[in-house]
Specification:
mainly beta; 7-stranded mixed beta sheet; 4-stranded antiparallel beta sheet
Amino acid sequence: VQLVESGGALVQPGGSLRLSCATSGFSINRYAMSWYRQPPGKERELVATIRGTDGTTIYADFVKGRFTISRADSENTVSLQMNTLKPEDTAVYYCNARSSLFDFWGQGTRVTVSS
């Protein structure tokens, strides 16, 4: 099982980024796929989830209206489109796959929002 995040970068406030999570070894439509983030000096927090069963999406209040989680089942990838980025969005972003039996994590990709 592998989850590999990509797309992190340095971006100016108000800019956009698209993060991708390439997976292998399991089918993402059988898992709840999530993006978490860990800001510098803070604990990891949930950003967004897309459920495997029906594709329902859930967002943290601090990203609602700005971020969009999506998945491509045929490619086994999950993405996070991030718009109107703020300095407080600076963090390492992690991809997570969770079921009743398993909990998989990627290694993270760094997003820095700064002018």
